[in-house]
Amino acid sequence: MDKIGIVDTMFARYDMGSIAEEELKSLPGFNTKFTLIRRTVPGFKDLAVESKLLIEIEKCKIIIALGMVGGADIDKTCAHEASQGLMLAQLMTNTHILEVFVHENEEKEPHNLIPVCIDRAKKHARNAYYLLYAPEKLRNQAGQGIRQGYADAGPLLLK
Amino acid sequence: MDKIGIVDTMFARYDMGSIAEEELKSLPGFNTKFTLIRRTVPGFKDLAVESKLLIEIEKCKIIIALGMVGGADIDKTCAHEASQGLMLAQLMTNTHILEVFVHENEEKEPHNLIPVCIDRAKKHARNAYYLLYAPEKLRNQAGQGIRQGYADAGPLLLK
Amino acid sequence: MDKIGIVDTMFARYDMGSIAEEELKSLPGFNTKFTLIRRTVPGFKDLAVESKLLIEIEKCKIIIALGMVGGADIDKTCAHEASQGLMLAQLMTNTHILEVFVHENEEKEPHNLIPVCIDRAKKHARNAYYLLYAPEKLRNQAGQGIRQGYADAGPLLLK
Amino acid sequence: MDKIGIVDTMFARYDMGSIAEEELKSLPGFNTKFTLIRRTVPGFKDLAVESKLLIEIEKCKIIIALGMVGGADIDKTCAHEASQGLMLAQLMTNTHILEVFVHENEEKEPHNLIPVCIDRAKKHARNAYYLLYAPEKLRNQAGQGIRQGYADAGPLLLK
Amino acid sequence: MDKIGIVDTMFARYDMGSIAEEELKSLPGFNTKFTLIRRTVPGFKDLAVESKLLIEIEKCKIIIALGMVGGADIDKTCAHEASQGLMLAQLMTNTHILEVFVHENEEKEPHNLIPVCIDRAKKHARNAYYLLYAPEKLRNQAGQGIRQGYADAGPLLLK
User: Fold this and answer.
1) Mean pLDDT in residue range D65-79
2) What are the residue ranges of helices labelled H in chain E?
3) Interface touch A143/B92, C-beta < 8 Å
4) Contacts C145 to A, Cβ<8 Å
């Protein structure tokens, strides 16, 4: 049975890992074709090595890595480092790691981040599933301005 | 028969992958010397590992990786991470991956991005072909201020 | 017996390494399940290779890397490089290295950095211990807005 | 016979590759001790993998990689990525790759870039030669404020 | 006999390599326990691969890499790339490379950089020696605000 890994952080202010978990459990094949492994690390800079461990030790076929980025400049630099780590971990393992980061400054009011967290985690959980089991679902939406966290931007329109 | 890989994203707002595909299909050797493989991933940070998989698993000889970059600061940071991933994937595989990114802020009006997308995807598809089959076409244009997406800048002129 | 590595710097203006050391010595299993190795390097850019040596030569199971970041722009760039090194060292060794950096500009008055140093070093020492011996302690706090150095931010609240 | 590789771009607005080529051809040992291989790629982000191919496939002993950087912010980010690639390619191959980049904003008037291109390409071609065949020429100028593209800055003088 | 490597640049405007050399020659064990190898490269982006060659080909146990950073924005970007290279070279070789960079904008008057160059090169030469032969000298100064180039900042004081 395939394993899909979910890694999230204590730092984040919303339990996006559980959203991803629920979404995947709702999809066909759960517990017959694939199962889930979940890990929590302190902050997003710990996601990359934990993801790599899930791939190399636990043999996960794909990873969903979830984190939240604070609003200060230093947080943005740290997010950049975390992302570079996830990029490198993917290339070292030939395995997709979907980065699901929500930035505190995407919304002015903290509570407005909640629907962003839910939508982004849910859609990327589904993207992970498609990458593994239904890549044509992604192929059919090439260049369509698809978004996670917010409504789709849609394709560019001729004037 | 050689394989040329095309990877694009659902995030992009124009189907540049199809432009690259059509251009390559119009060139001599299609289906006799080379064939195409196309994949679509969620966003441009997923391009690098997908490109590497196409090279290492599907044995593609070259990759065209297409994406669109949003206008916010965070989009630029993400584009930088995506580019670093593509750079690393090239060096890990000794294979060219031509990065074809269009930035939303290259034009004020979104619809004006369409000709940029088309021209850039088309010319880089052709560059990929030349790198494989006609490197002298590139060599002959060394230092000539060649551009993709817009008209060539041309060589520097003495005053 | 497991080994936990602690690496700190001469550059830092507070002996955070000793705080981490004391915290770990207070936890169950010290000298029965795990022991400590400590190293000091000149500055934070020397932490990554020293951490890697502790992992690969001394067989440490996890590392706590502590440093302080000055307030000038160049210090921030250097911190970024130090962090990228720690990220890479983790991925090359499949081992967590918890980065415990305190930034001089987190507080206006230097002496106010002292409690930040103590709290952050202590909590991350504990996080290292949990990662090794009690990952469920971290899992139970997923998405709870946990912080080191300051009070927890807590989870996002519905309006 | 040793091989020295020269890689340049179609993007650049001056044919610096030919300058480097001519300079090397004028030095003792050309066609007896060393020969040249030249490649042209679309843009500077393609230089790194082409350089690595010249080193690993063509067995070049050193590479001169030449490019021109546009004046927009995105150009600077791309140059940074290109440089990181060249750095990584060097470390993966244990081979020097001399980066010869001219930035459009080094001069206000485009035509004034021409002498910069010529001087920089010429001097770095010579530096490549010295690294291979006369390292003492470099050693003798340690800390002397040597420049390529412009006049030497010279050593710091006591007040 | 151990070898300590010293790599510096022609670009720098002060011969810091010689300062490091003299300092190491004055320390116990020179020519009995350790000897020196010195190399000069054009600029600081050439330091990383030269350091790696000294480690892997010449079997140096530690490297001191010295450079000077100009005051323009592009110089800072280049310094960042040079530093990333030195970081990577350390991790690829499990060997310390002490980066000794002096930034032109550390002082308003160029001649005031001279004592900075001397002090920084001298102290880091000594740090390299301690890392190899007397790590307890570093351990004893953990968190003491030690600086190179300027006077020590000292430890944080309670109010």
Assistant:
1) 96
2) 16-25, 47-56, 73-93, 113-133, 135-139
3) no
4) 11-13
Span E65-85, pLDDT tens digits = 999 999 999 999 999 999 999
- Least Cα distance to D67 among D59, D58, D76 occurs for D76
φ and ψ of E106, to 5 deg: -70, -25
DSSP B36-55: EEEEEESSGGGHHHHHHHHH
pTM score: 0.97
Spell out which residues of chain C touch residue E91, defining contact as CB-CB under 8 Å: 48-49, 52, 85, 88-89, 92
CA torsion sign for B108, B109, B110, B114 is negative
Please state, rounded to an integer, the average pLDDT across all residues of chain A: 97
Instruction: Report DSSP letters for E100-118, one per residue.
Output: EEEEGGG-SSGGGHHHHHH
Residues 6+ apart with CB under 8 A from E92: D91, E52
CA-based nearest residue to A98, from A87, A114, A106, A112:
A87
**Residues from C in contact with E at Cβ < 8 Å:** 8-18, 38-42, 45-46, 48-50, 52-53, 56-57, 74, 77-78, 80-82, 84-85, 88-89, 92, 109-111, 113-114, 117
User: Which residues, in sequence order, are bridge partners of residue A7?
Assistant: A39, A65
Distance of CA B81 to the CA centre of its chain: 16
Task: Say what the alpha-carbon torsion angle B47, B53, B56, B60 is, to the nearest 10 degrees.
Answer: -60
Given this model, what pLDDT does residue B159 score? Answer: 81
- Give the 3-state secondary structure of residue E61: coil
Contact status, residue D90 vs residue D108, Cβ threshold 8 Å:
no
Give pLDDT tens digits for B40-76. Answer: 999 999 999 999 999 999 999 999 999 999 999 999 9
For chains E and B, having 3+ Cβ pairs within 8 Å is answered no
By CB atoms closer than 10 A (0-12, 13-18, 19+), residue D1 is exposed
Which of B91, B141, B156 lies nearest to residue D52, judging by beta carbons?
A: B91
The minimum CA-CA distance between E3 and chain D, rounded to whole Å, is 18
Residues 6+ apart with CB under 8 A from A64: A4, A5, A6, A7, A20, A97, A98, A100, A121, A124, A125, A128
E strand intervals along chain D: 2-9, 34-41, 62-69, 97-103
Residue A57: band (very low, low, confident or very high) from pLDDT cuts 50, 70, 90: very high
| Contact residues of E toward D, CB < 8 A | 8-18, 38-42, 45-46, 48-50, 52-53, 56-57, 74, 77-78, 80-82, 84-85, 88-89, 92, 109-111, 113-114, 117
Q: What angle do CA C78, C150, C148 make, to 5 degrees?
A: 65
**Does residue A42 contact residue C148 with C-beta atoms inside 8 Å?**
yes
Inter-chain touch D90–E85, beta carbons under 8 Å: yes
Q: Report the DSSP pairing between strands C2-9 and B62-69.
A: unpaired
CB-based contact A139 B15, cutoff 8 Å: no
> How far apart are the C-alpha atoms of E51 and A139, rounded to whole Å?
46
Q: Are strands B2-9 and B62-69 parallel, antiparallel or unpaired?
A: parallel
**Would you place residue D159 in the very low, low, confident or very high pLDDT band (cuts 50, 70, 90)?**
confident
- pLDDT tens for A88-142 read 999 999 999 999 999 999 999 999 999 999 999 999 999 999 999 999 999 999 9
Cα–chain-centroid distance for residue A123? 9
Contact D49 B88 (CB under 8 A): no
